[in-house]
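Bump. Still looking for FGD2 protein structure tokens.
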Amino acid sequence: IQEPEEKKIALELLETEQAYVNRLHLLDQVFYTELMKEAKTGKTVPEEVVKMIFSNISSIYQFHAEFFLPELRKRMEDWNRNPRIGDVIQKLAPFLKMYGEYVKNFDKAVELITAWSEKSPPFQELIADIQKRKVCANLTLQHHMLEPVQRIPRYELLLKDYVRKLPPQSPDRGDAEKALEMIFMVAKHSNAAIAEMERLQNLWVVYQRLGLEDDIVDPSNELIKEGPIQKISTRNNSTSEKYLFLFNNMLLYCVPKVIQVGAEFQVHLRMDVEGMKVRELKDTEFPHTFLVSGKQRTLELQARSAEEMNDWIK
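Sorry for the wait, here they are.
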């Protein structure tokens, strides 16, 4: 007899979950445990570093191995009498928030593995040793570590498919739809964590280019636009090259440094966005110019094109 479509998907969920638990076992019980043992006895690598690399993988492993996988298995064994998985997935969804921490830490973890492999040959050797084992299937530690990052999107896809294939009158419909909504929210949550991480990363790079002036380093700032600009000097009718950084709360008016040691720019003026006025200047001698006036002072600026001027004004 042909198995119903939704059962095939539920079985795929169970099979991939089993494979996933094996992967988590490898990460937590093999890599993490052995590197930790080595860190405690030898002086290959500080314990702190090993903990930072693996983040909260132990909690993730315990949850899947001791709770979700057994529950799912019970459901599938009982399928013919009671075809449902929606309720189990609803129980799973809130725990997936644990992944936020792991996902946020992932890039840092990979950097640490690379750095300590260079610094500590025994550390590198132990990892290489484990990677040679059959259970690693010729894949690197970094590759295995990517698996939890990709697991939530996988749940989302499988569950979407499952809900699509459910017959309208299935007893699991209500639960499965609710479960999908919960998983969708968690997936959005972990994407937001990644986006936030990227925003902070970009912000930090900008701060370094500005020489880390402490009064402008603020993690809540958002960079909106940056670029070169000509400053018009009305006194002697000339222009000079400057550079602008526009944040959500301030405009930094900078001078590019000639000698680039450390910072690229020197902040000449910081203008609050609050109370700032911007308007186009119809100047025949200097096209594409606009006026920025704030509490601190007024600047006459010239862009390279009308389009660029309009971008800045906007």
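The chain has two domains: 5-189, 223-313.

Edit: fixed formatting.
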